[in-house]
Design a protein that fits this description.
The protein is of the alpha/beta class and about 350 residues long.
């Protein structure tokens, strides 16, 4: 079957599955509010249903799948789902994005089941700061999770750090040193005005340009290395060979190459992180649509895709928070923790 291309010629390439919208942390840039409305449990797709969705995307050319959330490791029996994906034999990459707190206990069963890439989100190495940033005193558990990934021999471990001015922008060099010690590649992420980031303001975004300047001041020469054009991060190398990445989603978005789809835990498909509404895959699935019907639906929707959400945000002179708290209350799927980051 030929490639399924959208209106800008972008193929369907990667799929992020948010297996739950619930989380054991409350990161200030993602879930800063006191209370949240959750997707009702009866609406959450079973692993069998999610596997059917993943297979339909694989039929249309998706080769990479990433499990995310909320915190994916709080959903029970995640290794069972990883095995189901792995047994399909359709994916080159089965990856996980996690805050790492529950990783130490689960990493061996996940890798045995077929997980082959792990990204841990970690924004600070300071325990007081971690508590302030996440609302939870669990830095040591997250670090134990990172150690366990290294021990399990997972190659390509990445650590994502959302950089926020006045919060953790004094830790970039320490984070690179930590990555060097552990063998993980650090990826600095520009703070995005997306979903539940209701405290976002342009003043606290630390841009790629600034991040590179800080790296040069600390380490000397910084050279860009070639990277996969469809990957969100630009990668750079220091004189000693240490590499790191920068994901400049806010100041220099990469919509032109974006091949990503996102599925919420209740089977809504979002073709952009900034999309205001999704496409319901749960209803046809629960009505018993077969694989041919599911792929027809997905192909038709993707063919008409024109999303360039982050690029459009850069030209908004009034740029501020993307959606208000009241809109988020009306539709929790607008939250980053529902659509998986
Ligand atoms: N709970 C898991 C974790 O934190 O890794 C997976 C879900 S989380 C929504 C996925 C990614 O989104 C994390 O790396 C997180 O740092 C990132 N993220 C959340 N809100 C963000 C924001 N406002 N700007 C940039 N990245 C954000
Ligand atoms: Fe933090 Fe991830 Fe939870 Fe959001 S979903 S609060 S980024 S751990
Ligand atoms: Fe893709 Fe939308 Fe993100 Fe642009 S903003 S890179 S189109 S998900």
């Amino acid at each position: 079957m030929g490639l399924t291309l959208d209106e800008h010629g972008r193929p369907l390439g990667s799929l992020r599955i948010s297996v739950t919208d619930r989380c054991n942390l409350r990161c200030q840039y993602c879930m800063p509010e006191a209370n949240y409305d959750w997707i009702p449990r009866s609406e959450i797709l079973s692993y069998e249903e999610l596997a059917l969705v993943a297979e339909a995307f694989a039929e249309l050319g998706v080769t990479k799948v990433r499990l995310t959330g909320g915190e994916p490791l709080i959903r029970r029996d995640l290794p069972t789902f990883v095995s189901m994906l792995s047994d399909m034999g359709r994916f080159d990459d089965i990856a996980l994005t996690t805050n790492g707190v529950l990783l130490a206990d689960q990493v061996s069963s996940l890798t045995r089941a077929g997980l082959n890439r792990v990204t841990v989100s970690l924004d600070t190495l300071n325990s007081d700061r971690y508590l302030r940033l996440t609302g939870s005193d669990q830095l040591s558990a997250a670090l134990a999770g990172i150690d366990a990934v290294v021990e399990a021999g997972v190659s390509n471990l990445k650590i994502n750090m959302v950089v926020i001015r006045g919060v953790n922008d004094d830790e970039l060099a320490d984070m690179v040193r930590f990555g060097r010690q552990t063998g993980a590649e650090i990826r600095f992420i520009e703070y995005m005005d997306v979903g539940g980031a209701t405290r976002w303001s342009g003043d606290v975004v630390v841009s790629r340009q600034e991040i590179l300047g800080l790296m040069e001041t600390e380490f000397g020469s910084v050279v860009e290395v070639s990277s996969d054009k469809r990957a969100p991060a630009n990668r750079f190398e220091l004189a000693d060979g240490t590499t790191f990445g920068v994901i400049a989603s806010t100041t220099s978005p990469f919509c032109g190459q974006c091949d990503r789809s996102r599925i919420t835990a209740d089977g809504q498909w979002y073709t952009c992180l900034y999309a205001r509404s999704g496409f319901d895959l749960k209803a046809p699935l629960r009505r018993g649509a077969d694989m041919g019907a599911m792929t027809d639906l997905i192909r038709a929707r993707w063919s008409g895709r024109i999303d360039r959400g982050a690029e459009q945000r850069t030209i908004d002179p009034q740029r501020g928070t993307f959606v208000s708290v009241s809109e988020l209350r009306r539709d929790p799927r607008l939250e980053m923790h529902a659509r998986g980051g």
